[in-house]
Design a protein that fits this description.
Elements: H1 3-21, H2 29-32, E1 38-42, H3 48-60, H4 62-73, E2 80-84, E3 91-93, E4 98-101, H5 103-115, H6 118-122, H7 126-149, H8 158-173, H9 177-193, H10 200-204, H11 210-224, H12 230-236, H13 240-261, H14 266-269
Parallel strand pairs: 1-2, 2-4
Antiparallel strand pairs: 3-4
Helix pairs in contact: 5-7, 7-8, 7-9, 8-9, 8-11, 9-11, 11-12, 11-13
């Protein structure tokens, strides 16, 4: 065999083979078209109560609807998991890009509303208002996630910013968003009523006081539609000047948040 003729041919074939393996044409369409998505994970319940909560959540479909909203509205730079179960939370972990929501949170909220006889006073069931509080809490943690993923500037407390963004997204994108926000505000009001004394840490903590969160959310709901929610003005005792400021605050809130979020929103990018 004449190796002087054969070796160049073999070398040429190897070069062509390696070149074809290194081209982008060999990358699957699935990889090219991959878009990070939000998803919900239900961890295994630890007892019958958690099993009932997990079953009811999945049957209701509210969480799946939230996940669909996230995926249809935002272009996520990385996957976002909403995890039900465990002992920690509600919280968002920027290191893992995960939102943690214990099943026990729903039990605690429902018991709080039931103890206050919220059903009789407001005409809704404790289960319904608990779902509302859960949704606002998830939107609050989603706000933290969006701030972290997009590296959005926040001047002031991020917890206050997350509250305002959660309320804004519910009002602007959910048919009953104002009602959800009002239920969340009522939970803060109930928790505030439990406190008769305050420690120093209540004032230097990362969250505003529950009473402040209550009035802030209601102010934004009123500001979003003063005619429909005029009862908020009278129920809270807002002065005419404060009520007018609520309208201005909501306008500024919506304008500034959407200015920051627009580059990452799918509808805006199309």
């Amino acid at each position: 065999m004449d190796l002087s003729r054969t070796l160049p041919t073999i070398a040429l074939l190897l070069i062509l083979l390696l070149a074809s393996c290194g081209t982008d044409s060999d990358v699957s369409s699935d990889t090219l078209d991959y878009t990070p998505q939000a998803r919900v994970i239900y961890e295994s319940p630890t007892d019958a109560d958690e099993m009932a909560i997990a079953t009811n959540l999945q049957a209701a479909g509210d969480i799946e609807a939230l996940v669909a909203f996230i995926n249809e509205t935002f272009e996520l730079p990385q996957p976002l998991d909403i995890i039900f179960g465990g002992e920690y939370g509600p919280l968002y972990d920027p290191e893992t890009n995960e939102i943690y929501m214990p099943y026990t949170f729903l039990t605690e909220v429902e018991e709080r509303f039931a103890a206050a006889e919220y059903t009789d006073s407001m005409g809704v069931t404790a289960e319904e208002v608990t779902t509302h509080a859960l949704m606002h809490t998830l939107f609050h943690e989603l706000a933290h996630a969006l701030i972290a993923m997009y590296e959005l500037p926040v001047v002031g407390r991020e917890e206050d910013a997350a509250d305002s963004l959660a309320t804004l997204l519910l009002i602007e994108f959910y048919e009953n968003g104002q009602d959800i926000a009002i239920s969340a505000a009522d939970l803060f009001n109930l928790e505030s009523a439990d406190r008769t004394e305050f420690d120093e840490e209540d004032f230097w903590g990362e969250h505003s006081l529950d009473a402040q969160r209550y009035y802030s959310i209601l102010c934004h709901v009123y500001g979003s539609d003063p005619e429909q929610y005029d009862h908020i003005r009278t129920d809270t005792g807002f002065s005419d000047d404060r009520a007018e400021l609520c309208i201005e605050e909501y306008e500024v809130l919506a304008r500034n948040w959407f200015l920051l979020l627009e580059p990452y929103m799918l509808d805006a990018a199309q």
